[in-house]
Amino acid sequence: MLQLLITFAVVAILSTAAVLGIKSSRSSLSLQNSVRLLANNMEKARLDAVRRHSSTTVTFTSTSSYNVTMDFGGSGEPYTRTFNLENGVSIISTPLPTASFNWRGRTLACTLTFALQNQNGDQSWVDVSDAGDVTVNSDVDVLPTANYSSVNSSGDIYSTTVVSGSTVRTNTADCSDGSVAVSGPPITGTGAGGCTVVANPSSTSIRKNGSSSTTISVTSSTATTLTVTKPTNLTISPSSQNVAAGGSATFTVSSTNNTRGTFAVNFTGSCTTVTSLVKVTN
Question: Fewest beta carbons within 10 Å, which of 45, 78, 145, 282?
Fold first, then answer.
């Protein structure tokens, strides 16, 4: 009997480990499939915009679905299709992002990041640069190291093709939004009985992978415990704090990986929740 019990226990442990491993693998595969399909749809929309000399869009309508407006049938008439992310996968970029390609296949903004996460907290992302380049899990605005040499424009190169100035024309050379966001003004939430919770600043920025950190101060008009909810690529310390009526608490925010974009950090008291946006840059 003792040997049977030991055998059953070992089988149960191995079976549990196998089931957990299968679930983790399925979750990871769902994330990879969703990211690849999104990137593929981005590329198709860009090429269709160039082919028709018109515009196309990829717009997230919820955290789990997005619309693609382009000419799917080759008839020259664009229409909209809805695509769903696989089960357990959601977009965590805030607000819900949109990519619009013009007739040259370019976007109207600097690098756009579509960050996705599965139910295990694993993350992946699609970048779309202002030039329309689409990449997965890489910095589209960072060029590899290359050696440059001077050329004589009076030789075999037409003068009209020579770009003046010393700026290396990366995907962000013509962007004006910069890599660091300006801190936003305080944001106030109100709840039952007229209580208020204020987060300051309402938006801020940090660099990826722990390269920098920032602080957010939260004030409550009533005594409460402030708790934090956020995506897994951010670390908030502490995760909760008790404050007295009219008191405030300070939370430190940093990034844990290379996922970039803008993400919502929610501070919840006894009567309401306020949201501060954290932009993660290079």
Answer: 145
Q: Which is more confidently placed, 98 or 17?
A: 98
Model confidence over 19-32: pLDDT tens digits? 666 667 888 999 99
CB 45 within 8 A of CB 34: no
The first and second tokens of residue 179, run together, are 């890599």
pLDDT tens profile 176-217? 544 455 688 999 999 887 899 999 999 999 999 999 999 999
φ, ψ at 74 (rounded to 5°):
80, 15
Residue 62 near residue 90, CB atoms below 8 Å: no
Strands (E), 29-104: 56-60, 65-70, 79-84, 90-91, 98-101
Which runs of consecutive H residues, i.e. helices, occur in the chain?
2-52
pLDDT above 90 coverage of the chain, percent: 60
- Distance CA(44)–CA(71), nearest Å, equals 10
Task: Tell me the pTM.
Answer: 0.74
Show the tokens assigned to 183: 């801190």
Report the number of secondary-structure helices (H) and strands (E) in the chain. 1, 18
Nearest to 234 by CA among 36, 94, 86, 35: 94
Q: In whole angstroms, what is the distance from residue 73 CA to residue 122 CA?
A: 35
Which stretch of 1-15, 153-167, 250-264 has the lowest confidence by average pLDDT? 153-167
CA distance 167 to 176: 14
Contacting residues for 246 by C-beta, under 8 A, at least 6 apart? 219, 220, 221
Q: Residue 192 in contact with residue 269, Cβ under 8 Å?
A: no
Side by side, which strands form the sheet with 134-136? Answer: 90-91, 112-117, 123-128, 134-136
When computed from its CA atoms, the radius of gyration of the chain, rounded to whole angstroms, is: 24
